[in-house]
């Protein structure tokens, strides 16, 4: 499917720039051109497709579904699945949180959504397909969904409602179960298309610099670092590698799109995939900016418990991947 | 009659660009309207929106979670 991009990169590097095959510089450049084109194309496609889904299935509908239907324990899984198809901007996480909880959705189910939504989003999926292939992407997506489901159920069991900030508790006390019926915007696909397209290109524009820098660093490492280089430092049998990688990753966020291309090279050069996935989940799923936003609705203690449980789940899944992959 | 426009958003870049769009439409078409930015989350939640930015015209939520185009804003205002 991507052969033509490889041909183009080969042609550009070996013919147009007349660089010799097998040199560090030419291999790094070839990798950079190939990866940039491939990943930007995939990102555009996936962001656009998710935009289409989202246009027909907006967040209000998700909320109504979750608060209306008795799901007999499946609500955590459903909230996680909705998290995948509903991209949300992190600046919306507070209104979203309150909207969910005051709509009668249990705290744990809300957490399941809040965990999976940033973890398995359109940008992460696009980058994963481009960098690691379909199989690893599927593993990542499925484990992201399971992680949200499991962490959400655990958080519900801990009965954390009392750790919400006072004004949220007040809203909850006065909240009545939402009875408003969701009115979908009645628009034809042709009316929706320009809006979806504009949103998709805006998202892409926002992340392009990070992606290109990430691929450039990845390209340099690809050309200059020998195969198996990292194995001596981060071997599979190093028990501390997974927790270290995860804890390092949790505070990071803004450069998520830049970090995945680097991580791909790390894996190619010998870092175990489970360790790398744990690292990427930490980067994509939890971040300091998110914690700052959530401070408006949660006490520090609740944020700490939330981050702690999710970090623990990420570390465990890192170990599991290293065992089975 | 003067219209009351409220823009709900916690101050993220998207909310700012929505304000820009609305402001431009109002000035360019000389629409009689006041624009108010609502950044307090407690106030925002009174409108029961879950995704910001949201555009409220005369207390009716017209757009939420995305940035409308100028044409769309103009249509909503006339």
Automatic annotation (TrEMBL), chain A:
It is a multi-pass membrane protein. It holds the Pfam family ArsP_1. Keywords: Cell membrane, Membrane, Transmembrane, Transmembrane helix. It is found in: Cell membrane. The chain crosses the membrane at residues 39-59, 127-155, 207-225, 237-254, 266-288, 300-321. The keyword Transmembrane helix applies. Its main location: membrane. InterPro entries: DUF318, UPF0718_permease. Belongs to the UPF0718 family. This is Permease. The lineage of its organism: Bacteria, Pseudomonadati, Bacteroidota, Flavobacteriia, Flavobacteriales.
From TrEMBL, chain B:
SUPFAM superfamilies: Thioredoxin-like. Pfam families: Thioredoxin_3. Residues 5-77 form the Thioredoxin-like fold domain. It comes from the Bacteria. The active site is at residues 12, 15. InterPro entries: Thioredoxin-like_fold (IPR012336), Thioredoxin-like_sf (IPR036249), THIRX-like_proc (IPR005243). The keyword Cell inner membrane does not apply. Transmembrane segments: none annotated. Disulfide bonds join 12-15. Keywords: Disulfide bond, Redox-active center. This is Small redox-active disulfide protein 2. It comes from Maribacter polysiphoniae. The lineage of its organism: Bacteria, Pseudomonadati, Bacteroidota, Flavobacteriia, Flavobacteriales.
